[in-house]
Specification:
Two copies of one chain form a homodimer.
Chain A lengths: L1 E5 L10 H9 L2 E5 L24 H4 L3 H4 L4 E3 L1 H6 L1 H4 L8 E5 L12 E10 L2 E10 L3 H11 L4 E4 L4 H4 L14 E3 L10 H11 L4 E5 L1 E2 L5 H5 L9 E2 L2 H15 L9 E6 L7 E6 H4 L9 E5 L6 H8 L5 H12 L4
Enzyme class (chains A, B): transferase
Protein name (chains A, B): diphthine methyl ester synthase
Catalytic activity (chains A, B): 2-[(3S)-amino-3-carboxypropyl]-L-histidyl-[translation elongation factor 2] + 4 S-adenosyl-L-methionine = diphthine methyl ester-[translation elongation factor 2] + 4 S-adenosyl-L-homocysteine + 3 H(+)
């Protein structure tokens, strides 16, 4: 049996009792280590697999002692190219595949694989980045398991998609979720803007998931085939707000301007969870500390009870009240 | 400290390790018992509170022995009228408030409180049902805690909002979630249809949460002030599909007709989780067994990888392929 086990959002104690029992009994335990991270960074993961200790091990912070089992860190490369190794014998023994959040939850932008090509033409060198849609690798893994006649069971857990309800906003009032990638000088994709616009037309909130870059190679290392990876990068609420204003300045359709209200959320579900409400302009100045961050752009259908709930998180209450009256009140 | 602890979706082992630790240490433990249910019905809950054993206790199936603590079942009445009792002393001691799913997740339609009035006019007696919006009571409880200067911490868990990803559909491709209430002869609200239409315009999927009626009084018992409750009712996928076709027959905008594809999901996260894919007409005939059920109406933007994943759950593969070609293929 292949078990996909959700780990939840904050630390190693967010696994469910059911999930932990499965991990303890499984023949092999893999940890998917590239679509998200847990928020602990003190514990050290001891790898007993043939793989070297993973550079993300500390960040992932899964304590082998806690789970009582050796955990094999599965990076993107391994899951994509060695799925049969992961699934080996899984028709006879139990294999647990651990995923931060919910196994089928929204992964961050990592699943919009970004391919960077350096093109030299004439005198200039340009980076051309191509983002193409692909299924989350977990779905791939399940499809492959099916082909091999291996049964699968899913142990759900918290995902940012529902945990964002901790903002006090009604989940019924969210439209489609979008993701925000790191802009570069030459690549500033704005398709997210169209989707936010579709939500805004009906007054709906939009959850924006922020880019994570883990285990990315520099162009030089990639070209030379050197498996040396750049330090991980996590987009902040301030960076996201900045990029949204940049797109708005270009598109000018009034979807996410300096006076649009948004909520910045950091480390949802952790002891030091932090929420802050303000205009996008205000949010470009906030520092919400360590990753992971998310952002919610407020819809005009925001209910007064939602306003009451979020108001206490305002960067500046006077500004919040002023902007609320000007753009949101009586629009719901 | 007030702890809002999510219990997850299926049974008592879906609580997180962190949540369980809190339950064990808390001075008092309440279980919110009216917006959803766990899927176990064998274990018996022993109430040691001053309240009588609750009629829902068996259904909720929370084993006192498992959590190692007496649990006070808090029904809607208690949470709404006795929140100060729940919060008593919580500035000095720890109080845990357990919620099925995620504490801030979407509750089912129960939070659209339905008020039934029997009106006698002339010769006929009509039931007039009024549905009015209210905040989820958990938000109310947090707001009240704030007023009393009580700190709150939230322990997230799986919610149907993200666990529905187990269908293989991309959560990025869902629009707003809607809820479906039990129609009566005189009350068939169709506002959900407008929201599905908004999603459909952009090719998005819609998650439909199905009505739960627990601890409802008959009109007679309500009028006489007798606290006798009707047996609980849970809407099935077949009933939901039936009602959607009924609304479509009236509205005729081609949003959810007999050839619209949908996924029925039952007992998500449980060992006997069941998924079935078919046209709404086909789904009116399926029996997915015990509660809880949910339904996803497929958007036309459905990706081919999503199709590959869901096809194996088809009621009839030939019909699925035919309808897919006719209405969905190449629309994404």
């Amino acid at each position: 049996m292949l078990y996909l086990v959700g780990l939840g959002l904050a630390d190693e104690t967010d696994i469910t009792v059911k999930g932990l029992e499965i991990v303890k009994k499984a023949e092999r335990v893999y940890l998917e280590a590239y679509t998200s991270i847990l928020l602990v960074d003190t514990a050290k993961l001891v790898c007993t697999s043939k793989l070297d200790p993973h550079p993300l091990a500390n960040l992932l912070g899964l304590k082998e002692e806690f789970y009582g089992r050796p955990v094999i860190v599965a990076d993107r490369e391994m899951v994509e190219s060695s799925s049969d190794e992961i699934l080996h014998n899984a028709d006879r023994v139990d294999v647990a595949f651990l995923v931060v959040g919910d196994p089928f939850g929204c992964v961050t932008t990592s699943h919009h694989t970004t391919l960077t090509l350096r093109v030299r033409s004439g005198f200039s060198t340009n980076d051309i980045m191509i983002s193409f849609y692909r299924a989350t690798t977990h779905t791939d893994l399940v499809l492959r398991a099916r082909e091999l006649g291996i049964e699968m069971r899913n142990i759900p857990n918290a995902s940012i998609m529902s945990a964002i309800g901790c903002t006090g906003l009604q989940l019924y009032s969210f439209g489609q979720t979008v993701s925000m990638v790191f802009f570069t000088e030459t690549w500033k994709p704005s398709s997210y803007y169209d989707r936010i616009k579709q939500n805004a037309e009906h007054g709906l909130h939009t959850l924006v998931l922020l880019d994570i870059k883990v285990k990315e190679q520099s162009l030089e290392n990639m070209a030379r085939g050197r498996k040396i990876y750049e330090p991980p990068r996590y987009m902040t609420v301030a960076q996201c707000a900045e990029q949204m204003l940049e797109t708005e300045a270009e598109r000018k359709e009034g979807i996410c301007g300096p006076e649009s209200l948004a909520i910045g959320a950091a480390r949802v579900g952790a002891v030091d969870q932090q929420l802050v409400v303000g205009t996008l302009k205000e949010l470009t100045k906030v520092d919400l500390g360590k990753p992971l961050h998310s952002l919610v752009l407020l819809g005009t259908k925001t209910h007064e009870l939602e306003r009451d709930y979020i108001r206490r998180f305002a960067v500046d209450t006077a500004t919040f009240d002023h902007i609320w009256k000007k753009h949101y009140e009586a629009k719901s």
